[in-house]
Amino acid sequence: MRVLGIETSCDETAAAIYDGDKGLLAHRLFSQIDLHAKYGGVVPELASRDHVRKLVPLIDEVLTASGSFPADINGVAYTAGPGLVGALLVGAAVGRSLAFGWNVPSVGVHHLEGHLLAPMLEPDPPAFPFLALLVSGGHTLIAEVAELGRYRILGTSLDDAAGEAFDKTAKLLGLPYPGGPYLAKLAEQGRPGRFDFPRPMLDRPGFDFSFSGLKTAVVVAVRGLELDNQMRADVARAFQDAAVETLVTKCARALRHTHSQTLVVAGGVGANLELRAQLSKMGARLRIKVSYPRPEFCTDNAAMIAYAGYLRLARGEREDLAIRARARWPIDQLHPPGGDGNRIADGG
Ligand code: KG4
Ligand code: ZN
Q: What is the mean pLDDT of residues 174-184?
């Protein structure tokens, strides 16, 4: 079975082709970062309009790059939520319509399920069940994954998502948008221990996170200071160390609690090299396997959507003819494939 995957939930337009026998055949992505950078964040209406411009040419490109004709495509998967609803509707409308025109089934994929399954596109993929740490621009969660579609959330962020905290701190340091990768780069030059920021929630039981206090601690620490480049790097380093230690400690706690043998790391912040290094170290200490996607599949992409859609389509899941998208869609409302359990309600 060969599946076209489409991702348009936020500010990246992406298309990919996944083949059940041959694996990932092609993937392309157009990032709208330049479009939104001058506003310091994603402007939803501009995002939707740009998806309209870029999506069909990208689909053409992946068909050509994978040596596929439309007649070779056996199903279409598109991100149906959560995300910006106008942006999602572009992918849903194009995906659903292509499936109708090609007379193949389609499925609306949960964006975070896509992220969680992304490590399975790599060699030596993780197997169910596993514990997942999902750290993106909009979400931070630790979830127990029993099987495809069965997710139990153990902890989430009570305020800012991890990526959001990186981005806001980066903005404070005068770095471009989105700041996560720039802050990480700057932190490489930072000297450890020059600033000491709190490790939020580590003193409390459970697996929830809170990052807004950390961001505030940075604001307070730099207030009134004339920061030279070295000091900015020191702040970046101290922030990253605090954020990473918090994430790693909560993961270790959840791994012990669930007796999981595998930790899957996904989402944009999963591309952070220091986080990966510290999680790997922790994995070695606890003798568990830690799986990550390649960095480009940590951030938004269509390969993960094509793959998640393939798994669901191959097990008989199908959308009806309606074009639906959901801005909010808790991942623990998903079900394993089969039946109507995953059909997303209108609105949301
Ligand atoms: O998963 P993603 O591409 O989009 C969402 O679904 O949110 O995640 C984007 C987030 C942004 O906040 C970005 O700054 C952050 O991931 N990010 C990073 C790194 N690369 C991307 N944060 C820290 N270090 C990085 N290397
Ligand atoms: Zn994402």
A: 95
How far is it, in rounded angstroms, from Cα 120 to Cα 113? Answer: 12
Mean pLDDT along residues 293-306: 97
Q: Give 280-285's long-range contacts (Cβ < 8 A, gap of 24+).
A: 282/248, 282/251, 282/252
Cα of 166 from ligand 1 centre, angstroms:
8
Whether residue 59 sits in one domain with residue 36 = yes
| Residue 170 to residue 168: CA distance in whole angstroms | 5
Kindly report the CATH number assigned to the domain that includes residue 6.
Answer: 3.30.420.40
The ligand with the least distance to the CA atom of 247 is 1
Q: Do 157 and 278 fall into the same domain?
A: yes
Probe target for ligand 1 pocket from 10, 88, 269, 298, with the most ligand atoms within 8 Å of CB: 269
DSSP code, position 40: T
Q: Which atom of ligand 1 is nearest to the CA of 180?
A: 14
- Residue 69's domain comprises 2-116+298-333
Span 157-168, pLDDT tens digits: 999 999 999 999
**What's the gap in Å between 135 CA and the centre of ligand 1?**
8
Distance CA(51)–CA(57), nearest Å, equals: 10
Residues 287 and 302 in one domain: no
Ligand 1 centroid–CA 225 distance in Å is: 28
Answer yes or no: is 238 within a domain: yes
Kindly give the number of the ligand 1 atom that is closest to the alpha carbon of 300.
3
Q: Which ligand 1 atom lies nearest to the CA of residue 298?
A: 1
Q: What is the pLDDT of residues 35-88, one digit of tens each?
A: 999 998 899 999 999 999 999 999 999 999 999 999 999 999 999 999 999 999
pTM of the model: 0.95
Mean per-residue pLDDT, 286-294:
97
